[in-house]
Design brief:
Number of helices: 14
Number of strands: 13
Bound molecules: pyridoxal-5'-phosphate
Strand order of the largest sheet: 1-9-8-5-4-2-3
Order of helices and strands: HHHEHEHEHEHEEEEEHHHEEEHHHEH
Helix content: 25-40%
Distance between the termini: 24 Å
Radius of gyration: 22 Å
Oligomer: single chain
Structural class: alpha/beta
Strand content: 5-15%
Shape: globular
């Protein structure tokens, strides 16, 4: 079986359906020491259920009062002036480029250690993605390499806060200011994270968030874009709904009938009230979710501290991670297994795993279009062959974390050279 077959057959990717979820009030049977531990489990409670039911019975299903409320709550939480709710983070990233007029002939610098969407949207607007390598310890974009990759065509940088740990934003903003670049943060992993005491979402011209099912907070599918710029926010709202001047909620309010105008050919990217019903309660629980993620992360770190075959990601001074993923890298030379074989073994032992991420520049479309050969971005490429993500979600129990640590250590003990 070749490597890619193995990947698709045995390995959960970011977008794979989630493993069995436990109904909220079902008895907890997960304490059995042989039980499977899923990669992810959503945390949806009676508050979300009640709010969705309320919306279903309210007679207003699409974008309306609950979405407005969710936007206000979200903007306040991250410390941004404006938040525009969208149907995905992909839509948020696309609109962020579009609203800044980035298109054919332009270059956008980003990281190869990211999900497809970060880079695909650069293609969608007709610009050219320019990949730079990542820092060894965090796998975040390396600001020094960003500066070196700048050309007269460079218009924007998209840093990705990998695994929830914010990039070195000060260095990135300094470079962007010097070269008049727009910083568009891909904060899909980083809702709730902060950089030197300030929450991610209020620091760059635009920040994109994801509420995909496996993210730190979810609306099933969904996203948000934040900005302090009132004009940008107003245009984002119009672009998110066909480019028409008045949204349905405003059209249906009392008073004189209001016609709508198409002011530009926009997109169909709006979030609707059923999603927002879930989102507002997820937001209220977010800090608690992150606390739990942090607790399990510390347990993992301690559990692997004396295991030289495993290197977890580093965390840097002054930065508070959102603890979205627990990523480890394997010292492959010390093990008799490849990363993919290691993951297969872990799955056989009932541990859900994921790969975040194989470097985007080596995927067929990008490799062929831009002629990348292996070796172009050595840190990202080595990481892409050796990293994997272990289960990390708020409803995990300490027993489950201990079990994952035990199963990983047993596997290493059995295959160490
Ligand atoms: C999940 C993810 C996205 C896309 O989010 P959607 O809401 O599914 O569009 C973008 N970037 C990164 C880094 C992601 O992990």
């Amino acid at each position: 079986m070749n490597r890619d077959d193995h990947m698709s057959a045995a390995v959960a990717t970011d977008k794979a359906p989630q493993v069995a979820s436990r109904p909220e009030h079902a008895p907890n049977t997960r304490e059995d020491s042989n039980a499977a531990i899923p990669f992810h489990e959503p945390s949806i409670g009676p508050e979300e259920e009640r709010e969705v039911l309320d919306t279903l019975r309210s007679g207003w299903l699409t974008t309306g009062p609950k979405t407005k409320r969710f936007e206000r709550l979200f903007a306040r939480y991250v410390g941004a002036e404006h938040a525009v709710a969208l149907n995905s983070c992909t839509a948020a990233l696309h609109l962020a480029l579009y609203v800044h007029g980035i298109g054919p002939g332009d270059e956008v610098i980003t990281t190869p250690i990211t999900f497809a969407a970060t880079v695909n949207v650069i293609e969608h607007v007709g610009a050219r993605p320019v990949f730079v390598d990542v820092q060894q310890d965090t796998l975040n974009l390396d600001p020094l390499l960003v500066e070196r990759a700048i050309t007269p065509r460079t218009r924007a940088v998209i840093p990705v806060h990998f695994a929830g740990h914010p990039c070195d934003l000060k260095a990135i903003h300094d470079i962007a200011d010097r070269h008049e670049l727009v910083v568009i943060e891909d904060a899909a992993h980083a809702v709730g994270a902060s950089y030197h005491g300030r929450r991610i979402g209020g620091l760059s011209p635009v920040t994109a968030f994801s509420f995909y099912a496996t993210k730190n907070m979810t609306t099933g599918e969904g996203g948000m874009i934040t900005t302090d710029d009132e004009d940008v926010a107003a245009r984002l709202r119009i672009l998110s709904l066909h480019g028409i001047s008045v949204d349905a909620w405003k059209r249906c309010r009392r008073g004189a009938y209001k016609h709508w105008d198409i002011v530009e050919p926009g997109f169909k990217y709006n979030m609707f009230d059923i999603q927002s019903s879930i989102g507002m309660h997820q937001l209220a629980k977010l800090d608690g979710f992150i606390e739990a993620r942090q607790r399990w992360t510390r347990m993992y770190d301690d559990g692997f501290a004396d295991t030289p075959e495993i290197t977890p990601l580093s965390r840097r001074e002054g930065i508070t991670s959102a603890y979205h993923l627990y990523v480890i890298r394997l010292a492959r030379k010390r093990l008799r297994l490849s990363r993919d074989e290691f993951m297969g073994e872990l799955q056989d032992r009932g541990v859900g795993v994921g790969v975040h991420f194989r470097p985007v520049h080596l995927h067929p479309y990008y490799r062929e279009k831009y002629g990348f050969a292996p070796g172009a971005l050595p840190v990202a490429e080595e990481a892409g062959e050796s990293l994997l993500s272990l289960p990390l979600f708020p409803t995990m129990t300490a027993r489950q974390v201990t079990e994952v640590i035990r199963r990983v250590r047993d596997l290493i003990a059995g295959c160490c050279q």
